[in-house]
Amino acid sequence: MKILYFAWLRERMNKGSEDVSPPTDVATIDQLIDWKSASDESFALAFQDREIIRASIDDELVESDAKIEGAREIAFFPPMTGG
Amino acid sequence: MWVRIQQEPFDPGAESNAFFLTDGAAGATVTFTGLVRSTPDNPIDALILEHHPTMAKKQIERFANEAMEKFELVDIAVIHRFGEMKVGEVIVQVMAASPHRQAAFDGANYVMDWLKTDAPFWKQEVTSDGAKWVQHRKSDDQAREKWQTKTPPKQS
């Protein structure tokens, strides 16, 4: 699956997207963040304030306990400031 | 109902005039136009808006459709820009048409309140010191909450 990063998360990650293949026991957004944080130091740093980070799965806003099975694209981003 | 996400500037008056002509059933239209501002206590040169293209369009379409249904609008249209814009330029415009005025006010307000907190756009303010990300405002969350907690008007 593809992960997208936006705004200051994109800057901290120094990239806008990457492809990942989490193991099958990584079932939720929370677990995906744990799994990535364990293996990727810049990800762990970027996601330090994880309670304010929001996520979407295939263009739908989701909570951090949402299941990622079958997801094509997962986006992570700070609180939105449009309008 | 239509939603346009674009980088190019647009003429807010021309859009509004074109929208008036869409349907003879409207007795009222409300146009909200959001601009890039620079104030003495927070002077900026420009704004840069980053967005998630596919999700931004879907989210705004969802809010516009909800507004259509909730307030029984005749029509609603939203234009939102991304990229760099100078002080005084238009960022966003929402136009709502309804048989009577209150529904048009409410429809435009509803879409803006949801868009502020749940449409994937992120603002950066550009000053002589560089660019910095705009902080999310608690008051925007409160503005959105009112649509979730509002009790229906009492029957008299």
UniProtKB/TrEMBL annotation, chain A:
It comes from the Bacteria. SUPFAM superfamilies: MoaD/ThiS. It holds the Pfam family ThiS. InterPro entries: Beta-grasp_dom_sf (IPR012675), Mopterin_synth/thiamin_S_b (IPR016155), ThiS/MoaD-like (IPR003749). CDD domains: Ubl_MoaD (cd00754). This is Molybdopterin synthase sulfur carrier subunit. The gene is moaD.
From TrEMBL, chain B:
It catalyses: 2 [molybdopterin-synthase sulfur-carrier protein]-C-terminal-Gly-aminoethanethioate + cyclic pyranopterin phosphate + H2O = molybdopterin + 2 [molybdopterin-synthase sulfur-carrier protein]-C-terminal Gly-Gly + 2 H(+). Its EC number is 2.8.1.12. Keywords: Molybdenum cofactor biosynthesis. Residues 137-148 have a biased composition (Basic and acidic residues). Residues 130-156 are annotated as: Disordered. Pathway: Cofactor biosynthesis; molybdopterin biosynthesis. It is an enzyme of class 2 (transferase). InterPro entries: MoaE_sf (IPR036563), Mopterin_biosynth_MoaE (IPR003448). Belongs to the MoaE family. Converts molybdopterin precursor Z into molybdopterin. This requires the incorporation of two sulfur atoms into precursor Z to generate a dithiolene group. The sulfur is provided by MoaD. Heterotetramer of 2 MoaD subunits and 2 MoaE subunits. Also stable as homodimer. The enzyme changes between these two forms during catalysis. This is Molybdopterin synthase catalytic subunit. The lineage of its organism: Bacteria, Pseudomonadati, Pseudomonadota, Alphaproteobacteria, Hyphomicrobiales. The gene is moaE.
